[in-house]
Amino acid sequence: MEGKQVEIHPHIRGRDVVSDIALGLSDGLVTNLAFLTGFAGASSNITILRIAGVAAVLAGTVSMFFGGLLKARSEKELYQADSRREMQEIEAEPDEEKEELVNFYIKKGLSREQSVEVVEKITENKQEWLKDMLLHELHLHKDQLKSPYRVASVIGLGFLVGSLVPFLPYLVLQSKEQAIEVSVFISLFFVSVAGGWKGKLTGRIAKSALETTAVAALASGLLYLIGRLLAFV
Hints:
This protein is mostly helical. It has eight helices and no strands. Helix 1 (15-42) packs antiparallel against helix 7 (176-199). The protein is elongated, with a radius of gyration of 25 Å.
């Protein structure tokens, strides 16, 4: 359509949601894989392993939910505190705050005259003035804030789904040895997929997938050896 600007290289939509889901998935996969593998190394009772797996899934999901909730709330509260402080400075020292903005625009390549003209226009509206100060001085923008409950739900759900992957073989199979093998195999596969998905945001799909898989394999192997050692204690 004429007059409508089209994005030649569209940005990834829902970047923050994708990142939160990938975080929950990866954490759930790696955490529960390592836990169950380590526990299986110490115990041969499949029933105990199933009970421990359920406890790990529930505890991890609840922990990730409230962890995400507190993190997002803290970010929102910090932004509000910074906004109040900056507004107080604008009210008390308007000339100094204007000069700060002028210097910011000069550093961007504008002349002093151009910078003064831009700042005078922006500062006609105190809310826009505040937004500019927060953006340039503290690198904060209100649009970056996310709903605490949405963040918590996405991360918690991601962890729940991820943690079920290494746990399902212990529910389906009767042999502990088979459960360990199948759990490790499918978990490492899903870990690599989750890592590659997260790496898509930074354009490092292969590197992110390999790094995440290596961490999961190392953690599960280490915990299994520790579990075997504890079994002999």
